[in-house]
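Researcher: Let's do a round of design. I'm pasting the C-alpha cells now; please hold your answer until I've finished.
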C-alpha cells in the first residue's frame, strides 16, 4: 500500500516532473508518485487531515481496478476519482455537520505543517505563505479551486485537467483565469 505520511508537510508548488517521471512504468509507481500531491489536493478541499487521508486512500484503492488501462489514462482517471470522492465527502459533511472542522490538535491548537529542515525564519515564512494560500483557496468557488489546484499546484496539462474535471479545456482556462485573479486579490489583501 502507498504511504501518504512520507510527505507530511505541504509545499506551495510541487517540483516539475522530469521525462522519467512523466509516465511511470507500473500502476504501483504511479500511485506512489501521486500520493503526496493527492493528499494536498484533498486536504485543501476537505480542510481536515483525516478525511483527506481517507479520500486519497479510497481513490488509490479504486485505481487498482484500472490496472489494465493504458498508462496515459491513469492521471486523469485518478484525479477524476479523487475529485468525485472529495465532493462526496463534502456533501456528506454538509448534511451531517453544519460546520467545517479545522486542523487542530487535541488541545485545540492549530496543527503546525511547517518543515523543520530549513531555518526558523524560512520555515515561518513558508508556513505563512501556505496558510495564506489555503485560506485564499478556501474562498474560491469549487470549480476555480479545482482548476487552480490541478493545473498549477499539481502541474497537470490542460487536457488532463479538463478530463479530470469533466469539462472542456476552454472551461478549465476560464476557471483558472478567474481563480488566479481572485487569488491575486485575496493574497494581496488577506482578511
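Researcher: That's everything. Go ahead.
Model: Designed sequence:
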Amino acid at each position: 500500500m502507498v504511504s501518504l505520511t512520507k510527505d507530511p508537510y505541504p509545499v506551495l508548488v510541487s517540483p516539475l516532473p522530469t521525462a522519467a517521471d512523466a509516465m511511470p512504468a507500473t500502476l504501483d509507481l504511479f500511485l506512489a508518485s501521486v500520493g503526496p500531491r493527492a493528499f494536498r489536493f484533498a486536504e485543501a478541499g476537505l480542510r481536515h487531515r483525516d478525511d483527506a487521508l481517507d479520500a486519497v486512500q479510497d481513490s488509490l484503492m479504486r485505481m487498482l481496478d484500472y490496472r489494465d488501462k493504458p498508462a496515459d489514462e491513469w492521471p486523469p482517471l485518478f484525479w477524476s476519482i479523487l475529485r468525485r470522492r472529495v465532493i462526496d465527502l463534502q456533501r456528506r459533511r454538509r448534511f451531517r455537520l453544519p460546520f467545517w472542522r479545522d486542523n487542530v490538535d487535541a488541545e485545540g491548537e492549530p496543527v503546525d505543517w511547517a518543515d523543520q529542515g530549513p531555518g526558523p525564519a524560512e520555515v515561518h515564512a513558508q508556513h505563512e505563505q501556505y496558510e495564506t494560500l489555503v485560506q485564499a483557496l478556501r474562498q474560491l468557488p469549487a470549480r476555480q479551486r479545482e482548476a487552480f489546484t490541478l493545473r498549477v499546484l499539481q502541474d497537470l496539462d490542460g487536457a488532463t485537467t479538463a478530463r479530470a474535471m469533466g469539462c472542456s479545456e476552454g472551461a478549465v482556462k476560464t476557471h483558472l483565469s478567474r481563480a488566479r485573479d481572485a487569488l491575486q486579490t485575496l493574497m494581496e489583501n488577506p482578511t
